[in-house]
## 1
Amino acid sequence: MRLLRAGRWITVLGFVLLAGVYLRALAFTPVERSQGLAQKIFYLHVPAAIWAETAMVLVGLASVFYLFLKDPRLDRFAEASAEVGTVFAAIVLTTGPIWGKPIWGTWWSWDARLTFTLFLFLLYAGYLLLRGAVADPGARRRYAAVLGICGMCLVPFIHFSVYLFRTLHPMPIVLKPSAPSLPGSMLATWLFSLSVFTLLYVAFVMQRYALGLLREPAAGSEGLHA
Amino acid sequence: MPDAVPQNAGFMVAAYITTAVILVGYAVTLYRRTLKP
């Protein structure tokens, strides 16, 4: 169970570092004058959004390769990445409205970025429900792979929706062609948070992948002792 | 005279708590599921 144990330890490390992110964001990062303390939600919301989208891209890529190679490890990774992506999408969809209420004056607006992100969450939920609904392992993997590829195709629309449509959502201030429009201390906090969310994604996927192996007795100890 | 900074700390606290609850909750469910035979 080496993979599982390593995943658990990395998760513990991730939570310790997350406490560091909270401390740095709350106590050692300046307050933005026009938005007040609510702006600090950005340090959690954006890294979670990046990993909610990246996880779906990885699901899609693993699914494409699964359809060609029929390697169950790719399907198992896609399943793990989808579940973890759902968690990050849930963070995006809760922290976003909490920021929106004081800044926009409303919890929710049916604009392109928000609606596409909700659609991403529903796609994740549908993907996981589909996996639970099909009993035959071969069919389950094929159907899930097709849905995973569809999910991957949605991600560019989410990311570029602020350019393609008129939207309330702020334009990117870090992930854009020109230099980030953030002061150094804010950018450092954001990069620290992004690193911790990356670590948590890796740790969660390792554990979820190991759980997938444990649920497949026929797979034996493949990978667990690798 | 500079504009006053908006007083909305409660929203920030709510977002930080919600994020921690979701992440810790998921870590706990993963741990519990891997314990089951």
## 2
Amino acid sequence: MKNMTKIAAGAALGLWGTMAQAADDLTLQLKWVTQAQFAGYYVAKDKGFYEEEGLNVTIKPGGPDIAPEQVIVGGGADVIVTWMAAGLAARERGVPLVNIAQPFKTGGLQVNCLKSTGVESTDDFAGRTMGVWFYGNEYPFYAWMASLGLETDGADDNGVTVLKQAFSADPLIQGQADCISTMTYNEYRQILQAGITPEELVTFNYLDMGFGMLEDGLYVLEDDLEDPAFKDKMVRFVRASMKGWKYAEEHQEEAAEIVIENDASGAQELDHQLYMVGEVAKLTAGSNGTLDEADYAQTVNTLLSAVSEENPAITKEPEGAWTHAITDEALN
Amino acid sequence: MGWIVFALAAWALGWLLNVWLARQPVTWWSSLAAPVIFGLTLLAVWEGVVRGFEINQVLLPAPTAIAARIGSSADLLWADFAQTVLKGALSGYVIGCGAAFLIAVAVDRFPFLQRGLLPVGNFVAALPVIGMAPILVMWFGFDWQSKAAVVVVMVFFPMLVNTVQGLQAADAMQKDLMRTYAAGYWRTLLKLRLPAAMPFIFNGLKIGTTLALIGAIVAEFFGSPIVGMGFRISTSVGQLTLDLVWAEIFVAALAGSAFYGVMALVEQRVTFWHPSQRN
């Protein structure tokens, strides 16, 4: 009888042991297509950082018609990469997203104008045509226009015409817009490749102007965090992801190659990814993964400074939209 | 729980009502009532399921929430409708169908055009709208003109093929009769061949109504001013205001049905002689 108990206990322990060793499945939904913007996650997967933490991570690429917030609430992902404005907007609409880590310290969103059209400073904006992407990119734009006292209902003495531009630099090159939105790591290079030199451009960086919004962060659903097993999984995930990001910063060429290898669409080119890794490294350089409360406050203030029907990001101060619980445990 | 019971009850009630209706002698109101009851049942079940299972409104808003949004955003919806349907779709439809009709007559008159133009038309029709739209936006700008251009390309080919086919519908005996009357080409065209082609032409026109709407909405995904149904649908998904997306879908469905209905009504008046219109 005593032996039986021992055997049973031993079997149970053995079972528990193998269960602990079996990798935990985890799905990450990206905000955009496979590119070096997400190099850290691909590096962490490829270099086995996730495996070391006992995780089996599936990385799902996104695209223009995929809202990560919708995917996570539908159960298609455990954790998503999204911009804070979109995360807070989703939270106010009943998707309780929580920021658990912030690999991007600074943002790559900017506005580029052609000097030849006569735009030198923000004083020249009235009567101009400006390209905006929407999908979350419009929030800081409307906040910026509101602070300049410009309306967005059409070009006149105190207003600008807003275009919804596609994700390319064409409108500026074709002369359909005086100013367009660009990311430092993507469309800005397209403009330069079209033969326009940096000297011919005026660049307005949202962060420098004080309308910064935190870009790529990691978000999970609030209810999931109450589960200790899920929390533990996230701690390991964030630790491995940040290791991936720091590795990507130091080994940029290798990171670009890893991104290319993981691009199932085959659409990305190595030299562009190499450029993007370099630009993205500048954005992640200042972060160890922990969300800076001051940056969070600036994002919220930007969003709240221009609340209108056109700009329905958030209408009131969010509560509980971020936590240090994961990063504190993962990184310290 | 109560809402799930409500959904089940609504479904059972709708079913019973329609079964009862089906056993009654057919009158004009009972043939109208059956689909209406079915539609209302669907809406009630939708409402009950969304509330009963507490489905997040980001995934699927309840019909009442959509109705409330239609009420509160009526101005916005009207501006989008005017931009996309009245400016983009309708002007493109008129230009595209008009041009296709004229070219069809020319193609019919000169056989060498038939051999040269139809294959090219075939090729253009095979271009997918999502491949074409960004290029046309680049050429014709962000406003409704580029949307109309997409619509022109989309409706042109079905209209052309149908009209060419229709112009061959008059048979040899009828043409011989016109010849014995000493009618020339133009008179034969106006009095015999075009009327005989009308059922085919209306086929093209009816296919074009839905294509025009699809073209105008999808083209707005690739660059637009900040008004329009396609713009609103694509950006509202990003802002997670799904009730507004559904409101736009409702307007699009309504506009599409009305557009098609009007064409079908005109067809009934014009081709009253055709066997398919006799009751």
